[in-house]
Specification:
Layout: H1 2-25, H2 42-45, H3 54-71, E1 76-81, E2 86-91, E3 94-100, E4 103-104, E5 107-111, E6 116-120, E7 125-128, E8 131-134, E9 137-139, H4 142-147, E10 161-163, E11 169-174, E12 177-180, E13 191-193, E14 197-198, H5 201-210, E15 216-219
Parallel strand pairs: 1-15, 4-13, 12-14
Antiparallel strand pairs: 1-2, 2-3, 5-6, 7-15, 8-11, 9-10, 11-12
């Protein structure tokens, strides 16, 4: 019995660490799951004889569920898993769409001539949709020319602008990062972007129509 109790405490400690890491990024996703992690102390978990206090455990689970409900947005939001390149689109507690996406390739590009380094990763954290646009035109940044080994044109030069590259829609997240489409559909599901989140056409349309300015974007 004592051995079982210590095993329970070990599992509980791992659960607490996992819950703490999920609060900031992916806690809304727990609403669709039957998984609930009890956040309780060791003296609450067991009785003096080593048995589990079931009533106390259920009470703590109920309190934790209430906290989760309060932290979950009531409007639309999206969760981006950069490890598995998967997205989850929610309306409140209901997941309405999910699928593959592409995120940052986590590589560096060094420009010796300009003495500048570019890091292509998708930043993690809680973002918001700052803008939406149909049929966007891509204004190519300097790194796009450096990467292709081409001379960098001056600002406003026609060679900087490309239509169709970003797909039919884009949602801006700030600092140059976006959710948009792609002409490289065969790479969806892989870490190949320069930091933006790429979606397939139908998924992008659903995300564009569901999320509004100010909607939360959870990236982890």
């Amino acid at each position: 019995m004592i051995r079982k109790f210590f095993i329970y405490l070990t599992i509980l400690f791992v659960g607490i660490l996992f819950f703490a890491s999920m609060v900031l990024f992916a806690i809304p996703a727990l609403q669709e799951s039957t998984l609930v992690l009890p956040l309780i102390s060791s003296d609450q978990a067991g009785n003096a004889d080593g048995t589990i206090d079931q009533a106390s455990l259920e009470s703590d689970i109920s309190k934790l569920q209430t906290k989760l409900d309060k932290l979950t947005p009531t409007d639309a939001y999206i969760i981006i898993n950069t490890s598995e390149n998967h997205f989850y689109l929610y309306q409140g507690k209901q997941m309405i769409r999910h699928g593959l996406c592409s995120t940052g390739k986590n590589e560096r590009l060094v420009s010796e001539e300009r003495k500048k380094e570019y890091v292509f990763y998708t930043p993690q954290g809680v973002k918001t949709v700052k803008g939406k646009q149909k049929n966007p035109v891509w204004a190519k940044p300097n790194w796009a020319f450096i990467e292709d080994g081409m001379p960098i044109p001056p600002p406003g030069d026609p060679s900087r602008f490309e239509s169709g590259t970003l797909g039919a829609y884009k949602l801006t997240l700030g600092d140059g990062y976006m959710i948009h489409g792609t002409i490289y559909k065969r790479f969806i599901g892989q870490s190949v972007t320069h930091g933006c989140v790429r979606l397939l056409d139908e998924d992008l349309e659903a995300v564009y129509n569901t999320l509004q300015i100010g909607s939360k974007v959870y990236i982890y």
